[in-house]
Amino acid sequence: MDSPAPAAAPLIEVRSIDWVPDEERHGRLWHQAPLWFLGNFQYFTIPIGFIGPSMGLSLGWTVLAGVLGIVIGTIFMAFHASQGPTLGLPQMIQSRAQFGYRGVILPLFATLFTYVAFNVADQVLLGDGLHSAFGWNANLVGIAAALGAAALAIFGHDWVHKAFRALLYVSLPLMIIVTIGVITGHGGGGPSDTHYGFGWVAFMAQLSASAAYNITYAPYVSDYSRYLPASTKPGGVIASVFFGAAGSAVWLIALGAWLAIRLGATDGLAGLQTAGNNVIPHLGQAVALLSALALVATMGMNAYGGMLTVLTAVDSVRSIKPTRTARVVTILILTVVWFGIAKLISAGSVSTVFTALTLMLYLLVPWTACNLMDFFVVRRGHYAITDLFRPHGIYGAWGWRGLTAYAIGFVVELPFMVLPQLGSFSFTGVLAKQMGGVDIAWLVGLVVTGVTYWLLSRSLDLATEQRAEAASDRELGTAHVGQTA
C-alpha cells in the first residue's frame, strides 16, 4: 500500500549516492510499472527482435526465445528492485557489502561500461533510425539526443519518472493500434523469400540477448525504487517492476521479429514507420517519433545511473561530499564520452545492439549473482548502512569473498563465450566451439558465481554484523532527529 507523500520534492534532485531518509521517501509504488514499461517501450527493444531472424531463426522460434530470455532476465532485475525501499541506497553503494568499500570498483567498472555502452548503442540507433525514417541528419540527431538525455538526468529521479509516464500515456494507444493492424494483416508485408527455421546457435543468441536486456537494468533498478517508503512490501515492488519491464519488452521484440521477417525491415524505426503508415496514413510517423523520444528518455535514465556509478567509484577511492555540482559535472562528462564513442562506431545498428548486450551480460552476471545471493540468502536484507560509507567499517576496504566469486565466475564464462564481431575481433571459447557455437557462458557464470559466493560467505560473522547494524540504526535515528528538528 502506498504511503502519503511526505513533502514536495525539489525541482532539481538533491540526493545522489547518499542515503535517503524516511521523510524524503516520496515515491509511489504504482510509479514503478509505467517507468519500467516505457523503459523498454522504445526503439532499442525492436532490433533485439531482429537478432534471431538475422541468423535464420523463424518468427515463432524468435518470439519464444525472446519471451524466455525476457522472463529470465526480468526475474533478476525485479528482485534487485526490492532492495531500494529496504535500504534507501543506490544499488552500487549497497554492493560494498559484497565487494568492500574500495573493492566495489571492480563491479563499478562493469556497470559503468553498461551505461556507456547502452547510450552509445542508443545514439547509433537514433541516428540510423531517424535518418532512415525521416532523412534527418544523424549528427544533429545525436547532439539533440545527448543534450536532452543530459538535461533529464540533471533534473533527476522525479523528472525521469514524470517524463516516462507522460510519454507512455501518449505512445501506448498508438502502439496498440499499430499492433492490432499488424495482427489483422493491415501492417503490410508478406511471406519472405528467405528460409527461416530453427537452430540452437540462433535460438540461444536470441535468448541470451533478450535476457541481457533486462539483466542490464539490475545495477540501477533500485536507484529508482529507493525513494519508496521503507514499509513498501517487497513482493509489490517485484511484481510491479517485473510486469512493467517484461510486458513491453516481449511485445516489441515480437513486433521486431515480424518487421524483420514479414516486412523485410533492416532498421527498426523505419520498419515501425512503414507498418504504422500501412495501418493508418501518418500513424507510422507519430509512433516512430514517440519511440525515438522514449529512447532519449531512457538515455537520460542511463546517464543518471552512470553518474551514481562514477561518484560511487570516486568516493571509494577518496571520500567526497555528494553535491548537485558533482552530479551535473559528472553527467556532462559522461555525455561527452558516450557521444564521442558513438561517432566512432561504424557497425550497423543490429550488430551494435547484439555486441553491446553480449558484453554487458558477461560482465554483469557475476555481479548480480553475488549481490542477490548476499541480499536474499546470506545477509537477508540486514546491513549496517553507515558502515557502507566507511572504508574501515564492518565490510572492510576489500571484500575478498565477492571479488573472488566474481573473478571465478567470469573466468568460467570464458570457455563458453561466443563474442560477436567487434571491429576485426571476435572470440569463441573452446567449449563453445565444441557445442557448435551455442552460447551458455552467462548461465554457467551465474550458477558458479552464486554457489561460490554462498560457500565463501559461510565464514561471515553475522552476529558482529548485527551489532553493527543496530549501532547504524541508532546513528541514523539521531541524524534523522537532527534533520527534522
Structure description:
By secondary structure, the chain is mainly α. The protein has a domain of 319 residues: Orthogonal Bundle (Hydantoin permease), CATH 1.10.4160. Helices cover 69% and strands 2% of the residues. It has 20 helices and 2 strands. It has a two-stranded antiparallel ribbon with strand order 1-2. β1 and β2 form a beta hairpin. α9 crosses α13 and α17 packs antiparallel against α19. The radius of gyration is 22 Å and the shape is globular.
Oligomer: single chain
Please estimate the helix content.
55-70%
Q: Low-confidence parts, pLDDT < 50 over ≥5 residues?
A: 1-7, 479-485
Q: How does the overall form come out from the CA principal axes?
A: globular
Radius of gyration over all CA atoms, rounded:
22 Å
* Quantity of strands, as a count: 2
CATH superfamily of the domain at 22-190 and 199-348: Hydantoin permease
The average pLDDT is 85
How much β-strand is present in the residues?
under 5%
Question: According to CATH, what is the class of the domain at 22-190 and 199-348?
Answer: Mainly Alpha
Biggest sheet, open or closed, and with what strands and sense? 2 strands, antiparallel
